[in-house]
Amino acid sequence: MFKLILSDPSIFKTSFEAISSIVDEVQIEVDSDGLRLNAIDRSHITYVHLELKERLFDVFQCDEPIKLNVDTEELMKVLKRSKSDDVMELTVDGGSLIVTFEGAIKKTFKVKLIDLEYETPESPSIEYPVKITIPIKTLKESIQDIEIVADRVEFNIDQDFLKLKAVGEFSDAEVEYLHGEKVTEDARAIFAIENIKEMLKAEKFADTTYISLGDDMPLTLTLELLNEEGELSFLLAPRIEE
Amino acid sequence: NEKQVSLDSFF
Predict the structure, then answer these.
(1) pLDDT, tens digit, for every residue of A182-220?
(2) CB A195 within 8 A of CB B6
(3) On chain B, which terminus has fewer CB atoms closer than 10 Å, C or N?
(4) Which residues on A lie below 8 Å from B6 (Cβ)?
């Protein structure tokens, strides 16, 4: 028996806004603990991890572990048809994922399961010297400020500030955010803004965002739901000076 | 000059 019911489909929708812009296909694994997926884009620049715990769901029936391979663009088209006050139900029938949204009207979509073309490596565990929190709206606005001058951004964290900097052909930009965390080392790394914007498409997932950084290390951006009911995290490879 | 690296070297 496989049936998941979620009274807030926006968690799924906002996750897949980002996931579908990064990867073409994903394997969603569901077992008695919850739902999770790991995926990496074809160029191995961005890794994404989604985990939704069993207790987040209104109904969670999963008698045996199941793997659902889906085309993210096709699933996103369906999720875009949900309204915020709809109740979402996921079931499986034969070779399809059945997605139902029920509000004023009931809509049912059958999304064909696919064969995966490539395997996703296990999530790397990286030790970071620096970790801070920042409201995701603040991060998004800062990236929009930087974006007007350049297509890459330097993240610089010291004991007081997160500074985002860019040098453009005609203008330079610098944004400073007083992070208020205990930081004992400085960290600096450069990233492509296009990749950061893909991750920020998930902004409605949760407000609490963690940034982990080290010199020339990947950027880890973690969005956490309240009471650890779910997490969406991204790992973005840096640009490195030659 | 910078280049985009992949995550492979960090796994």
Answers:
(1) 999 999 999 999 999 999 999 999 988 999 999 999 999
(2) no
(3) N
(4) 43-45, 237
Q: From B10, which residue of chain A is nearest by alpha-carbon distance?
A: A124
- Asked if B7 lies within 8 A of A44 by C-beta distance, the reply is yes
As a whole number of angstroms, the distance between CA A10 and CA A78 comes to 12
Strand B2-4 and strand A66-71: the pairing is unpaired
Higher pLDDT, B11 or A80: A80
Structure tokens at A122: 């296990």
Q: Where are the alpha helices (DSSP H) in chain A?
A: 10-22, 72-79, 136-147, 193-200
Contact A122, A165 (CB under 8 A): no
Amino acid identity, residue A230? G
Q: What is the ipTM of this complex?
A: 0.97
Categorise residue A119: left if φ over 0, alpha if ψ from -120 to 50, beta otherwise: beta
pLDDT tens across A107-153, in order? 999 999 999 877 777 888 899 999 999 999 999 999 999 999 999 99
Count of A–B CB contacts within 8 Å?
Answer: 42
